[in-house]
Design goal:
Elements: H1 3-14, H2 21-36, H3 43-53, H4 58-67, H5 75-90, H6 107-110, H7 113-151
Length: about 160
């Protein structure tokens, strides 16, 4: 099975969940939003909890946040954009950040608390800024497709092999 076929089957399966179109769209939107947030160990749990609080479809949220991981090869580029946007918004006067030199720090130093506060705040802010319009678009698109699947004509039941006289 090709990766594109797998993604289509999983994404299409979201709209066949037995729930209201609004609940499905809300679950997809929360899952997409949390997919952008760089809290890798917690984003699925947060998506499920927030969706549960908002009375959305927890299954749709789990599928959406998991499908967002398909963009994993693009993560470094996305994280850099998120950081740049967050840094620009937090700096006064607004300026883009200096070039990051990660080779100066060991990988263990990347997870130090001081890095969390210097890199984490702009990264979180930038991820929210990028996630909000994508979330609104995901909600509208999911609502449209969920309503469309609900109102599509059902195929007729298969006829039996024997004909009645």
């Amino acid at each position: 099975m090709s990766p594109i076929h797998w993604i289509r089957s999983k994404a299409g399966g979201v709209f066949h969940i037995k729930d209201t179109p609004h609940a499905i769209a809300l679950g997809v939107a929360v899952g997409v939003f949390m997919g952008f947030i760089p809290l890798w160990g917690f984003k699925t749990l947060l998506a499920l909890g927030i969706t549960r609080l908002l009375r959305g479809s927890v299954v749709a949220a789990a599928i959406a946040v998991t499908l967002h991981d398909v963009t994993l090869p693009l993560s470094p580029l996305l994280l850099r954009w998120e950081y740049d946007i967050g840094y620009w918004l937090m700096s006064h006067p607004h300026e883009l950040p200096a070039k990051l030199h990660l080779h100066q720090t060991s990988p263990g130093g990347w997870f130090h608390w001081s890095k969390l506060f210097t890199l984490g705040r702009p990264l979180l802010l930038g991820s929210v800024v990028i996630a909000l319009p994508v979330t609104v678009a995901a909600y509208c698109g999911a609502l449209f497709f969920a309503r469309r699947v609900r109102h599509s004509p059902k195929p007729p039941p298969p006829e039996s092999g024997a004909e009645s006289p």
